[in-house]
Input
Amino acid sequence: MIDPFGRHITYLRVSVTDRCDFRCVYCMPEHMDFLPRAELLTLEEMERLCGAFIARGVERLRITGGEPLVRRDAMRLIERLGARIGSGLQELTLTTNGSQLARFARGLADAGVRRINVSLDTLDPDKFRRITRRGELSKVLAGIDAAQDAGLKVKINMVALKDLNRTEIPAMLEWAHGRDMDLTLIETMPLGDIDGDRMGQYLPLSLVRADLMRTYILEESDHRSGGPARYVRVAETGGRLGFITPLTHNFCESCNRVRITCTGMLYMCLGQNDAADLRAPLRASADDIGLHAAIDEAIARKPRGHDFIIDRRQTKPALRRPMSLTGG
Ligand code: SAM
Ligand code: SF4
Output
């Protein structure tokens, strides 16, 4: 699949549920309205949809959510997709908050998953509860232990938040690199209604980088993980540090990805509202002809890039759709 700007679309993010056991302050309001279960694609439909994308050239799949591991049959989907690795699909990965990892790490490794991203914004248990509104840090840490024991390569994703974790970034860096895990820092993006003041939490990573350079030597690296992160190597720790900067630096020119939600909507850009309904063609016929046509038609509409802007007076989100619908 090649879009109108010549970009090869080889990466698909699949949100298997919009539900989550956490309510991270930058992601959702405390009282989140989740979709009725009847609207969700079944496991079989999700597998068929992923199969159609693999047939059209997708090589890497990332399972996400909401929290993917709170969907009861998520592991079955992961096992079935894992069985396709080597036949078109090259890699199957997962992004998780880690709360259920202790239980599922071994199964993930057995299914063929080799790398996972775990979201973790603080190592302080009280602050962890404040940011996630209900998470238990010890469970996530036990999950990370289990994942490493199972042989999974773990990357930590940390959303940089001005008042909540700015001073903790060096400690997180030392901890992650000390355990042979890359760390990627992410700027908050204006997606979905949250209860708080989003721009009050926004911390440009240019400032974080300047903070870190007072203590560390950050060596430019041309490492790419296939995503929007730009990496440096931290000379003192020998580990890798990534920066995802949707607001201060536009990364759209090399975008290779699209996203499907748990109801079968295909979003061609995380930062735009345009989407294509794939559930209708999926259900209209048992063969995939209409589905393939709908995918091609949607890829032909992939926009050049997002329109996120930094507007400190902005009280409403740029897009009403929360990150938990498309899974980041
Ligand atoms: N629940 C899983 C997790 O937290 O890893 C998977 C889904 S979550 C939506 C995927 C990633 O998006 C997480 O790393 C999370 O921190 C990040 N995220 C959520 N809302 C965000 C926002 N408004 N801006 C930037 N990143 C966000
Ligand atoms: Fe849940 Fe992930 Fe959103 Fe946090 S960031 S509320 S863990 S979906």
Q: What stands out?
A: The first strand starts at residue 11 and ends at 15. The pocket of S-adenosylmethionine (ligand 1) is lined by residues 20, 26-27, 64-67, 95-97, 119, 157, 159, 186, 188-189, 191, 323-324, 327-328 (CB under 6 Å). The radius of gyration is 19 Å.
